[in-house]
Specification:
single chain, mainly alpha, transmembrane helix, transmembrane, elongated
Length: 57
Amino acid sequence: MLALFLFLILVAVVLGVIGVAASGLMYLLIIGIVVFVADVLLLGLRLGGRRGRRPAR
């Protein structure tokens, strides 16, 4: 799970850098931002769902 999260963060950063550096490829920056936001939301849902499954002590 963590490897997928880090891979998607890397993809988002690379798309963002290419989108900023290359003229006319601003849509890559937007795609990178969308991938980053989706990745953070996915991680939040995964971590938030695990809290309720632990038995009370």
